[in-house]
Amino acid sequence: EGVVELTRHRGAYIRSLTRTETLDLLEILDMFTDLIARRAAASVAAGEANTPSQHEALGWLERFQKLGMESEAFLDHRRHFYDALIALGGNSQLHSVMPMMRIHLVRLQVQPYFSSEERQDRLDEYLAISKAVLNGDGTAARKAMRHHMKRMNQRISRLPMEAFAHG
């Protein structure tokens, strides 16, 4: 899946993505996350959603807002947030087509380079997405998700070269 790289006489290691690979991945994720937000909000609006899991994810996000964010815990809860959105949207194939291993690579690779203010900004963006979804407002959910993805692209673009593999 492009996570482990084997090098002769050096062994196996977890590979890092280049800046270009990371930005290309974000371009793909922009389309997927738009679909995720739209489907989740539509499900809530139609009364088809089992929203307790999303309410739980929102509750975790709100606790992070009050308690501050540790990198590892933040990553775990953010993954739960996206899993809850996908489940809420009800598309049975979304999990299988999302490039999850590469997403995790990027998260682990760039997380140390984000300031606490940037992590707080991301948390605020997740809260805006979640609130729009729980209100069943597909337009607002898509807008909030697109805003988040645009800001992530900007944040990644500003990271120093040492955050990425050379290539």
C-alpha termini separation: 18 Å
Q: Structural class from helices and strands?
A: mainly alpha
SSE arrangement, N to C? EEHHHHHHH
Main sheet characteristics: 2 strands, antiparallel
Spatial order of strands in the largest sheet: 1-2
- Residue share in helices? over 70%
Mean pLDDT level: 84
Rounded radius of gyration (Å): 16 Å
Q: What assembly state would you assign to the polypeptide chains in this entry?
A: single chain
Number of strands: 2
Q: What is the number of helices?
A: 7
Characterization of this structure:
With 167 residues, this protein is mainly α. Helices cover 70% and strands 5% of the residues. It has seven helices and two strands; from the N terminus they run ββααααααα. It has a two-stranded antiparallel sheet. It is globular.
